[in-house]
Specification:
It contains 6 helices and 27 strands. The protein has 413 residues and is α+β, with helices and mostly antiparallel strands. It folds into 4 domains: 65 residues, no CATH class; 94 residues, conserved putative lor/sdh protein from methanococcus maripaludis s2 fold (Beta Barrel); 89 residues, Beta Barrel (Elongation Factor Tu (Ef-tu), domain 3), CATH 2.40.30.170; 107 residues, no CATH class. A 6-stranded antiparallel barrel has the order 7-16-19-18-17-20.
């Protein structure tokens, strides 16, 4: 039993030594560089510092020469919290797909993105009625959504009242005199007879039993109640036609912006599924304000809408909300927004990437305006910034943990 007991004690001692050995090694290697002697540091774990070349005991990467003039040795005042500069080798940069872009200066106009709804103009709407109580003998256009031309037959109707009126005109014979003929034709026109139907009436000398209802304009049939054998009254619209050759775009804008829209303003509206923008011209600002939302209704006119643009469609419209000015632009993906800070990573010599706090402005397509923090000509990370940010935060966390657990780590790079 004594042998077993000593074997267990020896095993526990070996396990304890194995568990504490990395910490002892790291504590020894994390000592700050002193004097003028050359030091080596792990690019992934900055708390690992050695006096000679070797490998990091944590990630097995080769140690690199510690440069006291590196960005890590001289932290910037505008560095975001919980981040620090990172240095990446070329192979790692290529592996994670880091791409950089130069901050450029360009003239821009601030815009406000709003949603517009396409509507059919009120002036392009017409209805087809009978002029006297009638029976529908035949429906020639039986489907909504069908496009019809002006004068195209829509339905044939039978009206006892109109037939009786034609008989009275023919029996009186007043239509032989030119003056009386004009008055008779005007009376027949009030009942909806066309010139061709009146000419046939006078030529044949007998009432026409069926009258033709025709389209008053070019347009699409948006409503139809005419059915064969139905009874129609003058107050009921048998057909409703809508001209879609011109459309309106109606949108709501802030009350303060409405007076700033210049007359004849031309904007490009984007319709989902259509690559080419829809060109619209400001028609008017409607004289009403929404009391709850404090917005004004603005109407734009689209003269030649594309086939895909139909009433009820939603579009995105960019309205100018300020004067043109020169702005520093970077790719939109270069800006990291944590909710508490907004910053970018600058690419500098030596493979270093420096986090820098910025003040952002408007978004212009795929570019973001930088009002402060980045100057024209500086190189920013445009792709892979989130991966570099993860590396930066990890190194900052390890450094903070090392500083908290190792009292002698105060001189670290």
């Amino acid at each position: 039993m004594a042998v077993v007991r000593w074997l267990l004690v020896a095993a526990v001692a070996v396990l304890a030594a194995w568990a504490w050995w990395p910490r002892l090694v790291h504590s020894h290697e994390a000592a700050p560089p002193t004097g003028a002697r050359q030091q080596y540091v792990c690019p992934m774990h900055p708390q690992i510092v050695a006096d000679r070349p070797g490998q990091c005991p944590i990630c097995q990467m080769d140690l690199v020469v510690y440069d006291r003039k590196s960005p890590r040795a001289e932290p910037l005042d505008n560095t975001p919290p919980e981040t620090e500069p990172v240095q990446l080798a070329l192979d790692r940069v290529q592996a994670i797909g880091v791409r950089t872009a130069v901050a450029l200066s360009r003239a821009v106009t601030p815009t406000l993105q709003v949603t517009a709804v396409a509507q059919a103009p009120e002036a392009g709407r017409s209805e087809v009625h009978v002029r006297a109580p009638s029976f529908i003998e035949q429906v020639l256009v039986a489907e909504t959504g069908q496009f019809v031309r002006k004068g195209e037959p829509l339905a044939l109707v039978y009206s006892p009242e109109i037939i009786a009126m034609q008989g009275e005109v023919l029996a009186a014979g007043q239509w032989a005199d030119r003056t009386a003929r004009a008055a008779v034709r005007q009376r027949l026109a009030l009942y909806g007879l066309s010139d061709a139907e009146m000419d046939a009436l006078f030529r044949e000398g007998k009432p026409r039993r069926l009258l033709t209802l025709r389209a008053p304009q070019d347009g699409v049939v948006v409503a139809r109640v005419a059915v064969p054998g139905g009874y129609a009254m003058p107050d009921v619209a048998l057909y409703v036609l809508q001209d879609l050759r011109t459309l309106w775009l109606e949108l709501a804008v802030p009350q303060a912006l409405a007076p700033q829209l210049p007359p004849g303003l031309v904007v490009n509206a984007q319709l989902d599924g259509v690559t080419s923008p829809v060109v619209a011209v400001l028609d008017r600002v409607l004289p009403e304000i929404d009391a709850e939302r404090r917005t004004a209704r603005v109407r734009f006119r689209v003269a030649t809408p594309p086939p895909a643009l139909l009433p009820g469609a939603w579009l995105r419209v960019g309205l100018p909300s300020g004067p043109p000015h020169a702005a520093v632009l970077v790719p939109r993906d270069a800006v990291i927004d944590t909710g508490h800070a907004q910053y970018v990573y600058l690419a500098v010599a030596g493979g270093w990437y420096l986090p820098r706090t910025v003040e952002v402005g408007e978004l212009y397509g795929e570019s973001r305006e930088i009002r402060s923090g980045v100057s024209v000509g500086e190189m920013v990370v445009a792709s892979g910034a989130f991966l570099i940010d993860a590396e930066s935060r990890m190194q900052a966390s390890v450094r903070a943990l090392s500083a908290a657990t190792t009292p002698s780590s105060g001189g670290q790079p």
